[in-house]
C-alpha cells in the first residue's frame, strides 16, 4: 500500500477530538451505526480504546450529542448583493445562513473524562459539568482596573450566558449554572457547572440542556437510563 492510499487515522490527542465540533469531520455510514449494539466502554479497558472508539464516545454516545446551533430568529436563505429585476428577470441572489455544528458533552461523566484525558479546573469540582464545543461565544473582557494582573477577566462577563443556560431533569425546575469556564487549551469549548444538589436525577429519565447566546441556541436531551458506565450512572 502506498503512502497516498493509506486510510486516514484520526489522532487520539484531546485537541483533535475537540476540533470535531467545528465540523471538520463528517460521519460516514460506518460511523453512523447505533452505538447501543456495541457498548465497548463497558467491556474494554479505557487504555485500549481505539481512536475511532474515543471519537464515537465523545461525539455520539449517551454522554455526547452532535447538534447544529439554531439561529434565534430562524434559519434559511438570506438575500445578498443587488436585488430587483435585470434584463426582464430577477437577479436576486441568496446565501445560506452559516451553520455551526456543535458537540454537547456531559463533561463530568467518567467515560468522557477518561476518553479525553480531561482534567476539569478546580472551579468546577463537585459540579455536574456540561460542555459545549463549536459555538462562537465572546471571551470574557479584561478588567482594566486590575493593574497588577494586566487586566484580569471580569467575573461577571458570563452572567447573561448563565441566565440563558439551563439543565433540567425531567419534572423538575430548570437550573442555571453557577460556574462558567472557558477551556484554556481550546477556546471553542466552554464548561457549565451545575450544583448536584439542585439537579435531582434520582427519579428522572431525561435531562435537557439548553444554551442561548443571544444569537444562537443549542439544546439537546440526555437519556439518563442509558448513561450507565460499568453498571453505575455516570454523570
Taking strands numbered 1, 2, ... along the chain, how are they ordered across the largest sheet? 10-13-14-1-6-7-12-11
Terminal-residue CA separation: 44 Å
Uncertain segments: 2-37, 75-93, 146-155
Molecular shape: globular
Secondary structure class reads: alpha+beta
Q: Name the beta content range.
A: 25-35%
Order of helices and strands, N to C?
A: HHHEEEEEEHEEEHEEEEEEE
Write a concise synopsis of the structure shown.
With 235 residues, this protein is α+β, with helices and mostly antiparallel strands.
Please write out the topology.
Layout: H1 14-18, H2 40-43, H3 51-59, E1 64-71, E2 77-80, E3 85-86, E4 89-90, E5 93-96, E6 100-106, H4 110-116, E7 128-133, E8 142-143, E9 152-153, H5 159-163, E10 165-169, E11 179-182, E12 189-194, E13 206-212, E14 216-223, E15 228-229, E16 232-233
Antiparallel strand pairs: 1-6, 1-14, 2-5, 3-4, 6-7, 7-12, 8-9, 10-13, 11-12, 13-14, 15-16
Amino acid at each position: 500500500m502506498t503512502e497516498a492510499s493509506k486510510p486516514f487515522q484520526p489522532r487520539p490527542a484531546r485537541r483533535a477530538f475537540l476540533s470535531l465540533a467545528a465540523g471538520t469531520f463528517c460521519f460516514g455510514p460506518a460511523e453512523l451505526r447505533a452505538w447501543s449494539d456495541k457498548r465497548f466502554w463497558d467491556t474494554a479497558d479505557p487504555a485500549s480504546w481505539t481512536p475511532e472508539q474515543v471519537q464515537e464516545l465523545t461525539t455520539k454516545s449517551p454522554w455526547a450529542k452532535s447538534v447544529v446551533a439554531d439561529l434565534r430568529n430562524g434559519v434559511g436563505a438570506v438575500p445578498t448583493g443587488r436585488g430587483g429585476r435585470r434584463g426582464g428577470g430577477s437577479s436576486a441572489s441568496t446565501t445560506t445562513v452559516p451553520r455551526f455544528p456543535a458537540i454537547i458533552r456531559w463533561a463530568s461523566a467518567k467515560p468522557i473524562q477518561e476518553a479525553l484525558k480531561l482534567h476539569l479546573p478546580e472551579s468546577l469540582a463537585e459540579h455536574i459539568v456540561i460542555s459545549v464545543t463549536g459555538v462562537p461565544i465572546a471571551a470574557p473582557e479584561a478588567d482594566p482596573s486590575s493593574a497588577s494582573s494586566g487586566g484580569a477577566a471580569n467575573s461577571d462577563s458570563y452572567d447573561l450566558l448563565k441566565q440563558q443556560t439551563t439543565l433540567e431533569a425531567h419534572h423538575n425546575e430548570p437550573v442555571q449554572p453557577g460556574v462558567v469556564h472557558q477551556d484554556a487549551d481550546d477556546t471553542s469549548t466552554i464548561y457549565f457547572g451545575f450544583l448536584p444538589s439542585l439537579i435531582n436525577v434520582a427519579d428522572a429519565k431525561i435531562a435537557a440542556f439548553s444554551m442561548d447566546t443571544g444569537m444562537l441556541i443549542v439544546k439537546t436531551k440526555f437519556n439518563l437510563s442509558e448513561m450507565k458506565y460499568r453498571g453505575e450512572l455516570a454523570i
